[in-house]
Write a structure and sequence with these properties.
CATH class of one domain: Alpha Beta
Distance between the termini: 45 Å
Largest sheet: 5 strands, mixed
Order of helices and strands: HEEHEHEEHEE
Strand content: 25-35%
Radius of gyration: 22 Å
């Protein structure tokens, strides 16, 4: 671990202490796991504590762990992962918070801490079905309002449930059950015998 990461790790443990459920270092970045009960307060501390000073939330996304590790995952299914940047100290941090209920995943909104979380939380709600209590305008962002389900969940069918098309008789767009037959496509690569051999170029 570099000296900079070591200093960040020490500052995190000093100011957040037992509120950190887990801390891992991989690929030159630190990830902290946080319980949902302390999530809003901890995120505010990450922004305002002078020795941490994460002024920017650069990304927030949902994650569905149900198929993680070839289905061997035994923890909670849904998590919200935030990527923070400190301009002051020139370091980054990843914060992961698991939703306690797999059937109705909910993680408090951090829009009041970083306004940039607004559309990120709407996207996670739209695509994963994660609810963000405290968000003032939580509605779909990418899928239309009549869309059923959440397309980034691992159990959502690749072809979806409905398709839309223009009906010339009704002169409007209509929804109908999907007519695509589910199938598995295995790519086949055909190359010449000496493909990539520079001696024969």
């Amino acid at each position: 671990m570099s000296a900079k990461l070591e200093r960040l790790s020490q500052n995190l443990q000093k100011h957040l202490g037992e509120r950190i459920a887990g801390l891992q270092t991989a690929f030159g970045e630190i990830t902290v796991d946080v319980d949902v009960a302390v999530y809003p307060e901890l995120m505010l501390n990450l922004r305002d504590e002078p020795e941490l000073r994460f002024e920017q939330l650069i990304d927030l996304c949902g994650v569905d762990y149900s198929a993680h590790g070839d289905g061997r995952w035994t923890g909670k299914r849904f998590a919200v992962v935030s990527h923070l940047t400190s301009v002051t100290h020139n370091w980054r941090l990843r914060v992961r918070c698991f939703a306690p209920d797999d059937d109705f995943p909910a993680v408090p909104s951090v829009v009041s801490v970083w306004s940039s979380a607004n559309w990120f939380e709407r996207e996670a709600f739209d695509l994963f079905g994660i609810v963000f209590p405290g968000h003032a305008d939580l509605r779909r962002l990418l899928c239309d309002y009549g869309f059923i389900g959440h397309p980034f969940r691992k159990d959502f069918p690749v072809s979806g449930y409905v398709e839309m098309r223009y009906d010339p008789e009704q002169k409007r767009v209509v929804y109908q059950p999907v007519t695509i037959e589910p199938r598995e496509i295995t790519p086949r690569t055909v190359r010449e015998k000496n493909y990539g051999n520079v001696e024969n170029a």
